[in-house]
């Protein structure tokens, strides 16, 4: 498996609350941050490729190019590794959701988010969601950064769903929570992979095919 190259980090700074001048990170701190970023990025890719259960800590260490003992200095367990990757994606989702233009119709906002999640999956950057009885799921339920992000995204999508139902663009008879879970399911839709393996459609075409079947249904109109 190819190793992730650690390039010299870009100088970073942090501004603690209540201070005006940024505190420059030391070179060692920058190197540690660069390594941690490489670890999380690698875990994210492996979670997308094979899922949490099949991923091993040995694979992560080998892909990043560090010793397993060094890996554990950053993350104490496999669950902690995967949790960091899931938090990273959740933050990306939060950032994207809050860039959706206010002027769009509620249904178009939902489609925009669905397109983003599916494009992420097709590019191999969307971690597989943990199963109900997974140890990763238990870890995520105890991770405030993940839960807070999930609540933020869910509240925003929920508001758009209810607004779309009020205008009749989404069936008002459907429970909003069912529509929300349908949205989340697009992030791990196996149809995307099947169509990708078929090689007959581009990524953009695959996304639009799934968008059409999800939002317009399968009946002739």
Main features:
mainly alpha, disordered N terminus, 62% helix, 221 residues, two-stranded antiparallel ribbon, Arc Repressor Mutant, subunit A, single chain
How would you describe what is shown here?
- There is one protein chain.
- Strand 1 and strand 2 form a beta hairpin.
- Helix 1 crosses helix 4 (78-97), helix 4 runs parallel beside helix 7 and helix 5 (106-122) packs across helix 7 (144-166).
- The protein contains ten helices and two strands.
- It has two domains: 1-76, Orthogonal Bundle (Arc Repressor Mutant, subunit A); 83-221, Tetracycline Repressor, domain 2.
- It has 221 residues and is mostly helical.
- Residues 1-14 have low confidence and may be disordered.
N→C terminal distance: 48 Å
Q: Can you identify the CATH class of the largest domain?
A: Mainly Alpha
* Strand portion: under 5%
Please state the structural category.
Answer: mainly alpha
CATH fold call of the largest domain: Tetracycline Repressor, domain 2
Sketch the major β-sheet.
2 strands, antiparallel
- Overall number of structural domains: 2
Number of helices: 10
| Strands, total number | 2
Low-pLDDT parts are 1-14
- Helix share of residues? 55-70%
Shape: globular
Question: How does CATH name the architecture of the largest domain?
Answer: Orthogonal Bundle
Alpha-carbon Rg, integer? 20 Å
- Spell out the helices and strands N to C: EEHHHHHHHHHH
Oligomeric assembly: single chain
User: Within the largest sheet, what's the order of strands?
Assistant: 1-2
